[in-house]
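Fold this complex.
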Amino acid sequence: MSQLVFSLKDVCFSYPGDILALKDLTLEINKGECVAIIGPNGSGKSTLLSLLDALEFPQKGTIKFLELEITEKRMRDADIQKDFRKRVGFVFQNPEIQLFCPTVREDIVFGPLHLGIQKSIIEQRLKEIADKLKISHLLDRAPHQLSIGEKKKVAIATVLIIEPEVFLLDEPTAGLDPSTTRDIINVIKTAHNNGKTIVISTHDLHIVEEISEIVHVIGNNKSIIKSGKAEEILTDSDFLQKNNLMHIHIHRHFDIKHIHPHIHSKTI
Amino acid sequence: MKKKKGDFVERTILGIVSFIKETIFSESLSRKNGFLQRRDARFKCVSAALLLLAILFSKNILSLFIIYFGIIVIACFSSIGLLFFLSRTMFFVPLFSFFIVFPAIFNIVTPGEPILSFNFFNWEISITRQGIDSAAIFFFRVLDSISVAILLVLTTHQNILLKTLRIFYVPKLIVMIMGMTYRYIFLFLDSVIRTFISIKSRIGFVQSTKEGQRLVAFNMARLWLKSYNLQSQVYNAMISRGYTGEAYVLDNFHYNWVDIVLIFMSLFLLIGTICLNLFFL
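Structure:
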């Protein structure tokens, strides 16, 4: 039987000013799964990842991590906090906010240093990750001097170096060129092949069809409206179109305008 | 191309960009292989504290001037350009200390031997020798103190400095605020630049400084809210990677005999200043 990593039951969360972000959300994520959370803009995907990373706490309902309920009070315990941060890594949607040190090197080692990982191990991991992500030449640069693609790679490196069991990735390929997108997909696939649990929030269905086995769709009602295997959901064009997750392609073949829905499927 | 004087928005953008460049340049100074950059940060902080005490106890302009000269020499040996250092220390010090010290030169605040007297609505006011002396001592104390602080910051890597402050039991909250401020400043400035560029793209050239200020004032509230959200996001990103308010660095501290000599020299200077005050002044 697969081990349950995250278990959410009837989770509700609102931002100040009664802005509803999630409503009665129930979800289970097993160890080693690669799960995609998809949904239109403003559906609460990023909020869900913040809740999974214990940065926000639900006003109603429960979130359990490895059978232990995550509460604000419990996370105030320094040992629990440290253990949780070692096990769960979060790559934020905006790499700018994740890179806050004077140099890329310091940014990458920030996490493991704070989590008490031995310095010799950190140095070894830093070298390996910098080589793997081809960012060795950026280590002494200031983060705000990097391109968006480089920033995203560094942001991923800041989490990879912690070697968490669970990766939470918020829109990991948004706004990136095809080559950087490919590099990042490869990193995610490698982590998954190494047994890591991956939770990706995205509306880039291309990466969903390539790396995710299970898809949960959050609708405009701020709750999960459909869950299932990636192939089943990505081939349901009517459902995707109804929920703003699929667009219509218009392109020209010589002088003929060609219009068709943008289909995502591993079989087509 | 020469910038038009009234283009307030553009001048603000250029000002922020130059501040960012200067900050990056300052940060790069701490990685140079100069005299102070090679020193152990803990010893450097203690030496700076002793030097500040010596400046505080000094009541003699000549000794304060000698200390300032010594600071400049050390700055030069630490690969810090003389003009860069002087511009950083000499610009703000006269500006702020002048307003503070100005009343002290008059007999109303510091009675003494008049040098220059004038009549102000039948009220005789004099500039006194004692007033000028105390103003000059104040000026040099501020100049020396700021120079020591700037030299310490320029030659010590930000994270190492924060870590050192924690070693000396500076409260975690203060170190946390200092660290957060540095981490957040670039994001904030980036946000300011974007706001100003968007103003410019919508309204084009701003005719007058007054009009520019009015437009900027309208956007300040929005910018404040944006910056508030940004800082909470940065804080969350730090928490997510195990931040607890402590400062950690990858490099270990190393000291040698030069660091010990530096501390003894600062201590000697402090004791010398106290003795000079007690027995000769």
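The radius of gyration of chain A is 19 Å.
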